Amino acid sequence: MNDFSPFGTSEAFYAAFSEYYPKLVSYARRFGAIYPEDITQESFVILMQREDKIDHPVAFLYGTVRTLALTERRPLKNQNISLEFIVDHGKEGDAYDALLSHEIRKEIQKLPITFREAIWLFVVDGLSVREISHVLEIPEATVKTRIHRAKAQLRDQLNPGGHHVMV
Q1: Taking 90 as the threshold, does the pLDDT of residue 127 lie above it?
Q2: DSSP-derived 3-state class of residue 115
Q3: For residue 155, what is the DSSP state?
């Protein structure tokens, strides 16, 4: 590890690693990565070996995982990528299953990829609009628009008649 940690102290780095490692592995799986754990670990190594200061280390990690996962699967680029990669159906009480029901996941898959990626990073991975803009390399206003449109489309898909149902 170099003289500085992008997260401040070694303890902060280990805390960030513990928090983001599973999310980044999941993110790599969405791109069809064959070795998502290796890609995630490599992203942390790349971050720690950087000579220059990174202002948004979490966004840098997501961007690196994305790039490595896409590079890994480049020969497979014509295949569909499904958000189902994220959910490990073998685990009882999985956090992502608790967060998104099967029906909502199914509807998210119907969204255009640009909306799907933005809403997933925002809702499931808990990234801020600024972090998402760094990950996707797009302006913050575009991220906000994509999230807003994704929510609107999901609302329409989940409630086609537009009728409010009292529960």
Answers
A1: no
A2: helix
A3: H
